[in-house]
Amino acid sequence: ETGVTQSPTHLIKTRGQQVTLRCSSQSGHNTVSWYQQALGQGPQFIFQYYREEENGRGNFPPRFSGLQFPNYSSELNVNALELDDSALYLCASRAGTDTQYFGPGTRLTVL
Amino acid sequence: KQEVTQIPAALSVPEGENLVLNCSFTDSAIYNLQWFRQDPGKGLTSLLLIQSSQREQTSGRLNASLDKSSGRSTLYIAASQPGDSATYLCAVPGGSSNTGKLIFGQGTTLQVKP
Q1: Is the CB of B46 less than 8 angstroms away from the CB of A56?
Q2: pLDDT in tens, B25-81
Q3: Considering CB atoms only, which of A35, A41, A105 is closest to B42?
Q4: Partners of B49 in the beta sheet?
Q5: Would the CB atoms of A100 and B101 count as touching at under 8 Å?
Q6: If A4 and its partner were Cys, which of A74, A78, A103, B80 is the partner (CB 3.0–4.6 Å)?
Q7: In whole angstroms, what is the distance from residue B74 CA to residue B58 CA?
Q8: If DSSP states are collapsed to H, E and C, what string results for B69-85?
Q9: Nearest CA to CA, how far is A59 from chain B (Å)?
């Protein structure tokens, strides 16, 4: 157990809909990153938040957006869902140390 | 642009065998390298982290080595057990500093047969 939790565990949406995924960071961690992992692939970096500000972004379109709250919990929002958005979404938190602690992930299926 | 590659993509061994998983990266200016374990449909568990100034790290039956000049890291698993069956991923920070952006390989899926 890393202390990082994510909800929901699984989610099914249809193309064009919007989705919000949630992450609760490990206590004391002020940095959270989000990753997308397609089946059979390594995770791909989406973006990172530090003290409620986005401070790094991967090669993902603007319809992927996020928020970090004062308690350091975080959301990932995806608008206009596409079939290729089907993946495992992982969040990871850290407190300025080297190691990132990953949550169990949310499995998103887009039909 | 940093790229991380893991070979082989899959590996099947009998229980008790010692094995080596490989990870290569194209840009040797890395801050550190991390090995993770992922069980099917689950999140990632950090196994070992090697700083750029280190040559290896050990934890129990696991030993990870790092050769920055050749752009390679290996994860050695001694006396493999069925419980070691999982996907193993290596990752480096995207850039020479310790950014939160990790660049992952595609992973090696290990099956240890009883």
Answers
A1: no
A2: 999 888 899 999 999 888 999 999 999 999 999 999 999 999 999 999 999 999 999
A3: A105
A4: B34
A5: no
A6: A103
A7: 12
A8: CCCEEEEEECCCCHHHC
A9: 12
